[in-house]
Amino acid sequence: MRVAILDDYQNCIQNLNCFSKLVGHEVVVFHDTVKGHDLAARLQGFDAVVLTRERTAISAGILDQVPSLRLISQTGKIAGHVDLVACTARGVAVSEGQGTGSATAELTWALILASRRHLLSEARRMQDGLWQGYLGQQLSGQRLGIWGYGRIGRQVALFGRAFGMHVWVWGREGSMSRAQADGFELATSRAEFLAASDVISLHVRLNAQTRGLVTLEDLASMKPSALWVNTSRAELLVHGALVEALQSGRPGFAAVDVYESEPVLSADHPLLKLPNALCTPHIGYVERDNYEHYFGMAFDNVNAFADRKPQNLANPGVVPNFSWT
Q1: CA angle at 92 for the pair 86 and 96, rounded to the nearest 5°
Q2: Which terminus of the chain has fewer CB atoms gathered within 10 Å of its CB, N or C?
Q3: Beta bridge partners of 167
Q4: Looking at residues 84-99, what average pLDDT do you find?
Q5: Class of domain 2-99+287-321
Q6: Where does CATH 3.40.50.720 sit in the chain?
Q7: What is the distance in angstroms between the CA of the first residue and the CA of the last residue of the chain?
Q8: Contact in structure between 209 and 181 (CB atoms under 8 Å)
Q9: Do 169 and 201 touch, CB atoms closer than 8 A?
């Protein structure tokens, strides 16, 4: 099969151990992101495409311009960036994988620690020949709010417990039930959760129901000393709300790893101009062991399809529409 791998920003995928699974296929790796007609032109003649998470969206319009495409192999889960209905109608199989969440949970905690102790600012001061400049805030004894208690939220909550924080949880009924079963306190209301937390970490899956879940009013109800952390999805917040809230001083700080339009290749992004925002380039899942896991599963799905034994289908209804020629 002729296989395209998209959006390898770091030029690292060919150096993974799992890349050897694609021996026997004609593989082309692309290191930048293109969209629309440029994407359709790029994919001409390919039988399969491997997507790096949600970096590139595949729409019905793209599919119509790439008639050769028979398989989309997704690293991790489909999250709305692939039109499954259109894929099924056109006989394009979509296979997906499963992540562990550990790398993102660890990055979340790194952001919390770095923000509370002003690590980047202090390191830069030393590079400039200066000494101590900021008064940090310890985490022990502080209240950590976990908004959304899934696989990643649970790990972050356990880290908080280990650091001596008072951890509580807010979210939908399923999140609350799981958190309570693990012995975590539940917030009695959204308003209380926002107003009383010293750190809030967001761990909610993006979908039509959760888009714009967090409003400016929500953020404005947080403490001026509080930290907002988002390693999930930027679109969970109303557009522009975080920048406006930080400019107003409630919450006082933010640490974010996700943005509405990625990659962010300009220093003009409004969050990058704020001294009370710590920004990283969506590296929550970008870690060697995680990549071996994600891409290893994606490449296994390519091989299974090549053997005419498609697996891990997100659109199992596509099977009657397959064309193996």
Answers
A1: 95
A2: C
A3: 144
A4: 94
A5: alpha beta
A6: 2-99+287-321, 102-279
A7: 11
A8: no
A9: no
* Max Cα-Cα span within the chain: 68
- Cβ atoms of residues 70 and 323 within 8 Å: yes
Q: Hey, what amino acid is at 306?
A: A
With beta carbons less than 8 A apart as the criterion, state whether 157 and 142 touch: no
- Residues paired with 229 in a beta bridge: 201, 255
Distances 1 to 49, 119, 145, 225, 310 between C-alpha atoms, Å: 10, 48, 47, 55, 14
With beta carbons less than 8 A apart as the criterion, state whether 76 and 97 touch: yes
Cα-based torsion angle of the residue sequence 193, 272, 210, 180 in order, rounded to the nearest 10 degrees:
-30
Signed CA dihedral, 33, 6, 17, 75: sign only: positive
CB 62 within 8 A of CB 6: no
Write out the E strands in 153-207: 166-170, 185-186, 199-202
Q: Which two tokens stand for residue 277?
A: 């925002």
In the beta sheet, which residues pair with residue 214? 237
Q: Which residues are identified as catalytic?
A: 233, 262, 282
Note the pTM of the prediction, 2 decimals.
Answer: 0.91
Cα 161 from Cα 142, distance rounded (Å): 11
Q: What would the pLDDT profile of 270-313 be if each residue is shown by its tens digit?
A: 999 999 999 999 999 999 999 999 999 999 999 999 999 999 99
Tens of pLDDT, residue by residue over 208-264, are 899 999 999 999 999 999 999 999 999 999 999 999 999 999 999 999 999 999 999
* pLDDT at position 3: 98
